[in-house]
Write a structure and sequence with these properties.
There is one protein chain. With 965 residues, the protein is α/β, with parallel strands linked by helices. The chain has 34 helices and 34 strands. The relative contact order is 0.12. The structure holds iron/sulfur cluster. Iron/sulfur cluster binds next to helix 6 and helix 17.
């Protein structure tokens, strides 16, 4: 029987094992600061001076937090002796300086903390026992949608709808702000989490009272965030990455974030970018290269002289897409450009001086030159070879040079899905379908409820007498730009969005988009009004510099009015297409396109009916909006007709580097940054000020379909329950193919009326128009468990193929042994009722995509005991363990297909009595009276994960620890 230990309360900190490494540094103005010195540690471990900079920053945390308990002298020695090519078996306990959250993931995390306080109160403890130990910042950016676009007041209208939809969630956040001392919220309308982090939250170095000596010590910024693209912060030399909400929760409650000692891939840039090539082109190239190099689970560190030549925002753009190339981080060391960026973004002189002096004292200032540092592997790119590119139409790593987009789309149009094609008859490529004016937005708006507002001003007021959003949405639909009779065809661009922190944080590409718009307007080019165009800057600073540079009016003329400060199209909040377009697309099986400056383009992420989604730089987004189709080659064909019927080519309106550079002065203005971010506390906005939060240390869970007390601590006891080793008599809930994303497992987008979640919402009095999205309802487990595996595109291969070989899409399964077809949620409830455990079978990269703890939480609540896959994505694997669900991996070339698993068998999973990381497990397949045994690898990867699993997950583990203190 596995041994279970109850966590002990932390004892008094013993003397620091490396006290001699505490030294003093001096800033430019003579101020002194104490710090744990890596050069001093290098006297004992000479290897330290050849470590990659990213490893040194993690080492500093391990050194400083060495308390002989959670972090030991052995941990310090192990990491100080990091070797570039050693076998990776040791885990590093990494104590981070802070945590950042976005609202989709932050709300459920806050709900878990609130539920922990309920447990503390029920046990007669002080609820304040549950309190984040490091600063936590939640940036509200994921909720706003593009309902209105192409108008000057689009932003106001969209924000008012956002507040109307999310009032209950925002009230809950306000409760959190007053209940937890270290929990802050950047309200809606300020920007996107990673851009706000870059421009405002990151402060360079922190200081704290040292536990052992009580003196103030300085240390570098580091963090984890509940969003995959947290890695954007790597661009300014901050070590940080995305984790699931449950890991972040543990991190903020004093648990180190544990990671397996990583390989570090050195990425050397040489040369310089050519004229006309953007940071977006570069990041798509880097993504393609690093995908090929298989950097999953590794740190990537950029170095070399080309790295020093890159502007800070370009580095941030490259750091941002680390999840797309699969790395844990895409790290850029601190250097002069970082200091310049801090100056240009309004950080104080004292902060900047401490930052620079600290990194210089640590010997970590400046990107290493070739040969200075030992990397596991080195990859080199000559920046001069990067060409203008897009990526898509289905995956971010599928880069296409601009001149090949048309031919690539044409070729994929008729290729089978196994070759990433759209499976359409080639002869249909140029067929167009008429959409009549009365169908295309000219018809009378849907009848609004009797008490619904009739005028826009009324629609947007937050009065409680407006019970539904139907009127407002109807209004939004009827106010969209009108179009006449038109035709729709394959390759038509229906969404063109300047979106995503990946690019909106980068003034060079935003100014390029504005300059291109200016030249296009001056040349007489237009964007067809039926294309959903939007500009969603990642912070208000973008609008300010576009205005100062005189470019915003030109973007607006082409439909790119500011529509939101938030994620919007990047997270799938593009809003719906016109119903007539949806109908034409589905009726005629059209392959229409979106072009966006985002970082992901998985199936159904942007819009369920847009099958081809291309990632591109902001100026190319504008260019494709003008062209209106991806079947036009912008390198050889005119984008459109200008004044006097003249053909206008992309080359006629593409801005030069000099033109962009001349406007950069508007983008880096410290005073403007400071004035903007001072408003977070002082002027958060009228809509936010009007939100009334409840008071008190313990949340009383008023009835809500958005926020509900999560069930994870029901029946909590201080001693963990007896662990039943392995799984017996399980049924297969699903057989999945490769690359099942967390969005397939737990979608963030719209909720279908006929889905289990839709049915539940309606039964609880919520009208279809008020469903909002799964992402916004992550504070309510009743919605989220019903939404698990409910993505409209997920294919459970347990359902036999149709006569034409096609597979049914949607979250359905065959309940066994009757093989009755039903929703996965319904089958899960039946299995739970009869006490039958379930398992999931999958292919490669299970759980790829955004970090999404509900993908693991939902699986657990549906009674899934194990996921058996060919391989796992890093965060999702650890989240499964964190929720007490076993991740198991097939060995060699085994797969459920090769083993002939159909889904009607029953299964046992046998584990060793004493669970150990990555040990062998056995899958027993019972079928037709025969039992077959198959070896598996248990993907519990580290000793601490063994403890989490034994405790039923990370949250009960941490709660026991806190309550025992
Ligand atoms: S804009 Fe996109 S990448 Fe950035 S935080 Fe939002 S969803 Fe993530």
């Amino acid at each position: 029987m596995p041994k279970i230990t109850t966590p002990k309360a932390p004892a008094r900190a013993p003397a620091h094992a490396f006290a001699k490494t505490r030294k003093t540094f001096k800033t430019a103005s003579g101020k002194e600061g104490r710090y744990y010195s890596l050069p001093a540690l290098a006297r004992q471990f000479p290897n330290v001076s050849r470590l990659p900079v990213s490893i040194r920053i993690v080492l500093e945390s391990v050194l400083r937090n060495c308390d002989g308990q959670k972090v030991t002298a052995e941990h310090v020695a192990e990491l100080a002796n990091w070797q570039p090519s050693a076998e990776r078996t040791n885990e590093i306990p990494f104590v981070v300086a802070r945590v950042v959250l976005q609202d989709f993931t932050g709300v459920p995390l806050l709900a878990d903390l609130a539920a922990m306080r309920n447990v503390a109160a029920a046990m007669g403890k002080n609820p304040k026992t549950i309190e984040p130990l490091v600063p936590v910042d939640l940036v509200v950016d994921h909720s706003i949608m593009i309902d209105h676009y192409g108008k000057k007041n689009s932003l106001d209208l969209n924000m008012k709808l956002e507040f109307q939809r999310n009032q209950e969630r925002y009230q809950f956040m306000k409760w959190g702000m007053q209940a937890f001392d270290t929990f802050g919220v950047v309200p809606p309308g300020f920007g996107i989490v990673h851009q706000v982090n870059l421009e405002y939250l990151a402060r360079g170095v922190h200081k704290t009272k040292d536990k052992a000596t009580k003196e103030t010590v300085y240390y570098p910024d580091s963090l984890v965030g509940t969003d995959s693209h947290t890695t954007m912060i790597n661009g300014i030399g901050v070590v940080g990455w995305g984790v699931g909400g449950i890991e972040a929760e543990a991190g903020m409650l004093g648990q180190p974030v544990y990671l397996l000692t990583p390989d570090v891939v050195g990425f050397e840039f040489t040369g310089r970018l050519r004229e006309g090539v953007t940071a977006t082109d570069l990041v798509l190239t880097v993504t393609e290269i690093l995908r090929r190099e298989k950097v999953v689970g590794k740190f990537v560190e950029f170095f070399g002289e080309g790295t020093s030549s890159l502007a800070l925002p370009d580095r941030a753009t490259i750091g941002n897409m680390a999840p797309e190339y699969g790395a844990t981080m895409g790290f850029f060391p601190v250097d002069e450009k970082t200091i310049e960026y801090f100056k240009g973004t309004g950080r104080t002189t004292a902060e900047i001086q401490a930052f620079e002096a600290y990194f210089k004292a640590q010997g970590m200032f400046g990107a290493p030159r070739a040969g200075e540092v030992d990397y596991t592997q080195v990859v080199t790119l000559d920046l001069g070879t990067v060409a203008p590119s897009l990526a898509g139409p289905k995956r971010p790593q599928d880069r296409i040079e601009l001149g090949h987009v048309k031919s690539q789309f044409t070729s994929l149009f008729s290729k089978p899905p196994t070759e990433a094609g759209f499976n359409q008859p080639a002869a249909h490529l140029h067929t167009r379908h008429l959409v009549r004016a009365e169908e295309a937005g000219e018809k009378v708006p849907r009848a609004a409820p009797a008490n619904a507002p009739g005028a826009p001003r009324e629609v947007v007021e937050m009065a409680s007498e407006h019970p539904t959003l139907e009127a407002a949405q109807s209004e939004a639909s009827s106010k969209q730009p009108k179009v006449g009779d038109m035709s729709l065809g394959n390759g038509d661009v229906l969404i063109a969005a300047i979106t995503s922190c990946t690019n909106t944080s980068n003034p060079s590409v935003l100014l390029a988009a504005g300059l291109l718009a200016k030249k296009a307007v001056e040349a007489g080019l237009k964007v067809a009004p039926h294309i959903k165009t939007s500009l969603a800057p990642g912070s208000r600073i973008v609008t300010e510099y576009l205005e100062k540079a005189g470019l915003l009016p030109y973007l607006e003329k082409l439909g790119f009015s500011v529509a939101a400060y938030g994620c919007t199209t990047c997270i799938g909040n593009a809003g719906d297409l016109r119903p007539e377009f949806n109908e034409a697309i589905t009726k005629n099986d059209l392959v229409c396109a979106a072009v966006l400056s985002g970082n992901r383009n998985f199936e159904a992420r942007i819009h369920p009916n847009l099958k081809a989604n291309f990632l591109a730089s902001p100026p190319l987004v504008v260019a494709y909006a003008i062209a209106g189709t991806v079947l036009k080659d912008p390198m050889t064909e005119p984008l459109g007709k200008g004044k006097g019927g003249r053909d206008i080519y992309l080359g006629d309106i593409w801005p030069t580097s000099d033109e962009i550079y001349a406007l950069m002065k508007y983008a880096m203005n410290g005073k403007a940054f400071k004035a903007n971010y001072d408003k977070v506390a002082k002027e958060p906005g009228k809509l936010w000020e009007k939100i009334k939060g409840t008071k008190g240390q313990v949340y009383d869970w008023p009835g809500s379909t958005y926020i509900a007390k999560p069930p994870f601590f029901d029946d909590f006891t201080m001693a963990p329950k007896k662990l039943v080793s392995g799984v017996q008599g399980a049924r297969a809930m699903a057989l999945f193919g490769d690359s099942i994303t967390t969005d397939h497992i737990s979608p963030a987008g719209s909720i279908k009326e006929s889905s289990p979640a839709g049915i539940w919402l309606k039964a609880n009095g919520v009208g279809k128009a008020d469903f909002n999205s799964y992402g916004s309802r992550r504070g309510n487990h009743d919605v989220m468990m019903r939404g698990t595996f409910a993505n409209v595109r997920i294919k459970n291969l347990m359902i036999p193929a149709g006569a034409d070989g096609s597979r049914e899409e949607g979250g359905v399964t065959l309940f066994q042994p009757s093989s009755e077809k039903m929703f996965i949620y319904d089958a899960a409830m039946k299995y739970i009722a009869q006490g039958t455990p379930t398992v999931i079978f999958a292919g490669e990269e299970y759980g790829t995509g955004s970090s999404r703890d509900w993908a693991a939480k939902g699986s657990q609540l549906l009674g899934v005991k194990a996921v058996i896959a060919r391989s796992f994505e890093r965060i999702h694997r650890s989240n499964l363990v964190g929720m007490g669900v076993l991740p198991l991996q097939f060995r060699g070339s085994d797969s459920w297909e090769s083993l002939g698993i159909r889904g009607d068998e029953s299964f046992d999973i046998l584990l060793a009595d004493e669970i150990a990381p990555q040990q062998e497990a056995t899958l027993v397949i019972h079928s037709d009276g025969v039992a077959r045994k198959v070896p598996l690898t248990l993907r519990i990867d580290t000793p601490i994960e063994v403890d989490y699993y034994k405790h039923g997950g990370i949250l009960p583990f941490v709660l026991r620890q806190l309550l025992a203190a």
